[in-house]
Amino acid sequence: MDGKVHIRSVGAMDRSVDVSPHDYRFGGVAQVAISRDGQALLTTGFDGVLASFGWNYTATGSSKAKSAVEAARAHHASHLAEQQMEDGVVGETPEWSLALSIPRVNASPSKEETEELEKKTSDEVVFTTPTPTPGAESTWLETKELFAIREEDKQYAEVKKVLRTEIRDMRKNLQTMMEDNQTVQDIEKLGQHEFDLDIDEQTRLQAMAEQEVARIREEIEFEDLAKMYVTEMIKQECWDNMLVKGRSLVAFGTSLEVANYPMRERSPEEMEALQIATVRREVEMEELTKRRSLTEISQKPSQNSLATDPYAQKPEEGTEEEMNETDDVEGEGHENPATSGSLGCKYGGINPLFYSQFELHTREQKLIQITLLEDAIYKIKQMFNKEFDEVYKKKMQEINRINDRAKRIRKIIEDLHLEDKINDRDMTILEKPERLLTVDDSEVKVEKYYTPEQKKKT
């Protein structure tokens, strides 16, 4: 059982050689054999392994092994003739088979043979186990055990016969029920295990089945719970928290599609950064205006100096065209797109606090410009979404008008007894994405599952 083989010498029983050819966890050693020449030790185990070990002889042990091998060969040679004679007798014996030991029945037995066979079957089905008899080489203990078994059989012979008769009748009933089970419809058929008369085994199988069903149901519930959690997180992140939900407008009769801008509400941090950038830019512009006014005042010559000094230089006057160009630029109120690099002012993204492209030098100026541009982009998206909503409402009105006309047309078709069909128009999923968040009963194609409590209520 421990997977080890202990080898002892007859002349020195106190000393042993231990080898571990097999794993004790699989049952250990099954059989041990020594080769005819005595040179190898063979072992087989319950783990399916065949192990072979050779002897490592000393000088004295080698001579003893040779003498033992010669004695074994002489013993084998003395029995060789007897073994060959037995092999010849066994070889001439005809091969035994079950078909030879059972009388064959004709393909079409007569009526008398059929009645006799049925009678034998009805009377002979009570099988009895033959009482073992002691062999020629049985020990005294084995003989006593067999004698006790024989006495017990005599004492309980009637009880055993009654039990075997009941088992025979029960087997017949089961066979009849199994044959009838094969003729019913598939939905009414019972499984093979339903005919098992072992109550303990049935109870064990039912308990195992219930445990497996409970385990699978628990796994499914956890999977559904995880999916519901992920669904709720995605819905909250991508739908509930959106200030403007994403949707599209699809043109009638074409594949043209225009989508709006999904927008979130700006966070307090973004609004605070925008406020800081706006204040800094206003302060910077006010400082620059004051500095320019002070510079112009300091550089402007006084009227007295111009009047007394005839050589004083007068300010240059531009041509009439230059003056007109200056007036045009000032009248527009914003820079030319060629210098500003953007058409955002035409779509609601104008902001007088923007830096000119030629004034961005420091890192702080660039950060303020980025914040102001993000605010302008947000305003442009708001303007676009406002126009998008107006067009969306117009399309809904047009669809309602089309459906009203279709209703009148269907009434006319019904009065004329025609078979034409007019379908109503409706918004698509892209135009009403909120329909994806609800499931109608018509979309479920499988049969609804009702719990036992729900079945009792219905």
**If you average the pLDDT, what whole number results?**
79
Structural class: mainly alpha
Count of alpha and pi helical runs: 13
Main sheet specs: 3 strands, antiparallel
Helix content range of the residues, please?
40-55%
> What is the 3D form?
elongated
What order do the helices and strands follow? EEEEEHHHHHHHEEEEHHHHHH
N-C termini distance: 63 Å
Q: From the alpha carbons, calculate the radius of gyration and give it in angstroms.
A: 53 Å
| Beta-strand segment tally | 9
Beta-strand content: 5-15%
Enumerate the strands of the largest sheet in spatial order, edge to edge or round the barrel. 3-4-5
Low-confidence stretches: 97-107, 303-308, 310-333
Word description of this protein:
Helices cover 55% and strands 9% of the residues. The chain is mainly alpha-helical and 458 residues long. Strands 3-4-5 form a three-stranded antiparallel sheet, with no helix packed on it. It is elongated and about 145 Å long. About 9% of the residues have low confidence.
